């Protein structure tokens, strides 16, 4: 990709063509939520204008058309990550997906469950392993699972450069490890974890592997089979799709054996006043009215990404990320979190400005029309490990140009002088 092509791509994103505080908008907060192309917005609108109906329920023409759209979208998104149709479950977002997995494992740990479900049970003496770089969405559900069941939560520490301590990891995988859940890409440091190696270490001790792919599915070209993970979660709104929809990938035989999380209509086969029997995956985990129009738009989003080319998107974003890190490192008083320039990372950079709180940095940049994220980015333990309570994060996507990165760097260079801070 080139700046010329990216400028053409930007024509598909009308929100980017606006002024903010008298300046042309520079949107560098796609790590929080991405902007949407016209084709995605049109897909959702077209559903409501032409096909709106409940799915998997009615036998009339509109209901059949709506169901076709819904299931075709599932096929499109499943194929995008290398999964089969029955291995993709719709959720409200990735956080809901992680809770689905954790609560299902908890349901397998108590009461009367099927023999197939017992493989997911955890209890006293068992261990759940995460990493020190996790988003709260991939930490708190496991904390709660361990609290409810008596299992022990452990974590792989990170090193000063933000990379996982792989030597420590090797020692933490034991016969007691039942679940290993970790992020593919850190939403703070941009570190890209070695998924295949970590999954092998977990499988060698018989643990199930759960991948938080929120920051990788939009950017890297995800293939869950090649990565050899048992489960993966990702959110639509971070990859050009609307809010209100995400997905869980799970190996079919595992999903079919797991106890359901949410129960009610649309996920059952037979219900009496005393008992209910449940459908196989994916309907097993899709109780109630589903995000139908959002699914149609999600399919349009992954089609847009596929047509652009995920390898090309990743290469472009990686270049923008390196440009950001190198530029930030050259500014006095700036500390970049994570690996230094020249080390592979995602297209984002979080940083500390010496003497200026992250919130003040964000307001200064916003005055210049630059939109970034400030705070702990839902990763307090990682920030605490790096000696911070908050940072500023710029994150790029396929619609950002090198000129925008340079405008961001120029604005950052003005922060400390504005607040009267001089020197290194």
From TrEMBL:
Entry cofactors: pyridoxal 5'-phosphate
SUPFAM superfamilies: PLP-dependent transferases
Catalytic class of the enzyme: transferase
Keyword Transferase: yes
Gene Ontology BP annotations: cysteine metabolic process
Chain ranges of the Aminotransferase class V domain: 26-408
GO molecular function terms listed in the Swiss-Prot or TrEMBL record: cysteine desulfurase activity; pyridoxal phosphate binding
Pfam families found in the cross-reference section: Aminotran_5
EC number: 2.8.1.7
Family of the protein in this entry: Belongs to the class-V pyridoxal-phosphate-dependent aminotransferase family. Csd subfamily.
Protein name, per record: Cysteine desulfurase
């Amino acid at each position: 990709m080139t700046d010329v092509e990216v400028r053409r791509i930007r024509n598909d994103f009308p929100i980017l063509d606006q002024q903010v505080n008298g300046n042309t908008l520079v949107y560098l907060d796609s790590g929080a939520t991405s902007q949407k192309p016209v084709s995605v917005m049109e897909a959702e609108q077209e559903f409501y204008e032409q096909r709106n109906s409940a799915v998997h329920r009615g036998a009339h023409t509109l209901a059949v058309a709506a169901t076709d759209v819904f299931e075709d979208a599932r096929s499109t998104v499943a194929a995008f990550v290398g999964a089969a149709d029955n291995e993709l479950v719709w959720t409200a977002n990735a956080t809901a997906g992680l809770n689905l997995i954790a609560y299902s494992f908890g349901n397998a740990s108590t009461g009367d469950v099927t023999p197939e479900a017992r493989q997911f049970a955890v209890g006293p003496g068992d261990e759940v392993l995460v990493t020190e770089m996790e988003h709260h969405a991939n930490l708190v559900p496991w904390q709660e699972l361990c609290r409810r069941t008596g299992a022990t939560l452990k974590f792989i520490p990170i090193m000063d450069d933000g990379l996982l301590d792989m030597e420590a990891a090797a020692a933490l995988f034991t016969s007691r490890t039942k679940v290993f859940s970790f992020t593919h890409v850190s939403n703070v440091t941009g570190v890209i974890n070695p998924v295949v190696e970590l999954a092998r270490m977990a499988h060698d001790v018989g643990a199930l592997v759960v991948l938080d792919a929120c920051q990788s599915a939009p950017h890297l070209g995800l293939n869950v089979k090649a990565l050899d993970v048992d489960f993966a979660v990702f959110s639509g709104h971070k990859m050009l799709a609307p809010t209100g929809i995400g997905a869980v990938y799970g190996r079919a035989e595992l999903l079919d054996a797991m106890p359901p999380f949410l129960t009610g209509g649309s996920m059952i086969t037979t219900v009496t006043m005393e008992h209910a029997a449940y459908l196989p995956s994916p309907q097993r985990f899709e109780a109630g009215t589903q995000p139908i129009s959002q699914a149609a738009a999600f399919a349009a989003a992954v089609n847009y990404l596929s047509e652009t080319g995920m390898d090309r998107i990743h290469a472009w974003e990686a270049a923008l990320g390196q440009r950001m890190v190198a530029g930030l490192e050259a500014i006095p008083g700036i500390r970049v979190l994570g690996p230094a320039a020249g080390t592979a990372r995602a297209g984002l950079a979080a940083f500390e400005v010496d003497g200026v709180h992250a919130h003040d940095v964000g307001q200064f940049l916003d005055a210049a029309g630059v939109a970034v994220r400030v705070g702990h980015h839902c990763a307090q333990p990682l920030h605490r490990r790096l000696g911070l309570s908050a940072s500023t994060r710029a994150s790029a996507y396929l619609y950002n140009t090198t000129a925008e990165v340079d405008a961001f760097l120029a604005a950052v260079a003005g922060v400390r002088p504005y607040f009267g801070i001089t020197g290194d």
